[in-house]
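quick one before i forget lol
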Amino acid sequence: MINSGKETVIIVHGTWAAPISDKNPWYQPPDSTAASEGFVTKLDTALKERESSARCWLHCRHGGQIFHWSGENSWIERTRAAAALGEYVTKLQSEAWRCHIVAHSHGGNVVVESLPQITATNSQNQSLGKIVTLGTPFIDTMAPILKRMRHVQLIRRSASWMGLIGFVVLVRSLISCCFTL
């Protein structure tokens, strides 16, 4: 399904790097020769030198939009971005694009969280592309949830034990009462 001739590089920015009007962020394709020394141009040049057919945002040359997210520093925004990235990449894969992803900072966490969605349709175990992260402060997004779940389970177990102990105390007192009558 994935055609190695159609390879694109998607760049996922990190926190506080959402697009701002009238500015061309480092992760967007250059819109002028003044930006010819930017990250995208340098990466494309390096890919070309290595005889790779992949280029940054190559799929956008066919009318597509680049991927970006709010860049807000919150788990909720990164989770939303992960879902959006998963949809974005899955759509490109359905159009036979092989997608490589370069992620910066918390963009790496966005990518990691999107992986189950991105890889879900790969029933043939084909190479879907490569992922590179730069300066990603990898975080375990499940840790706070699991910690809370363990806390709730501990309370429930304690409540169950307390209920059982209360029941045993009640039964003992009834037995005691029965014997005292």
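fyi The helical segments are 39-49, 75-94, 107-119, 143-180.
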